[in-house]
């Protein structure tokens, strides 16, 4: 069984490689954003607790997020393993995750860090734009709509660029994320489960490298 945590700065290609891993290994992809939305929509006890913080504009405390992760990892669809995306973000969260996964007997087997140079990430993220209607994400360099000016998913013709995808904002965001990622890499390096993959390669080559780690 593969239980994976993917690390990488925004724009490193975590979304793309996650899809490829799910296709090949049938892992359950767990994104913290989706998990929050699902728990709040289903009005689970911990979902409602998280919502009470979000509605006030407060950060959801680590303990509540951890309970949400525990609830999600305990669900029956996680037969083949899982990919965690967006959690843990801090050492405290990593320690909480370790306790949860021990309790559920679903410990992390791999942590893969996708490494990409800052300049490449700035170029990639600044090229990103989205469909105004359905939120589908495109990229001027790597993923244009199949028909120019028309969203593949919903057929809308209106697109926009998020404020946080503008170059000056992107640089700042990357530096903040790098500060958070470095301690996590050290933590998992010490635990002996960290592998580093060159995210500068083509998406196909990135997946080959990730696949080589996972198939060991």
UniProtKB/TrEMBL annotation:
Start and end residues of each Adenylate kinase active site lid domain: 128-164
Biological processes per GO annotation: AMP salvage
- Region described as NMP: 31-60
Residues that, per the record, bind Zn(2+): 131, 134, 151, 154
Catalytic reactions of this protein: AMP + ATP = 2 ADP
Q: What is its EC number?
A: 2.7.4.3
One GO molecular-function entry: zinc ion binding
List locations, semicolon-separated: Cytoplasm
Family of this protein: Belongs to the adenylate kinase family.
Assembly: Monomer.
Q: What is this protein called?
A: Adenylate kinase
Classification of source organism: Bacteria, Bacillati, Bacillota, Bacilli, Lactobacillales
From the UniProt record, report the name of the gene that encodes this protein.
adk
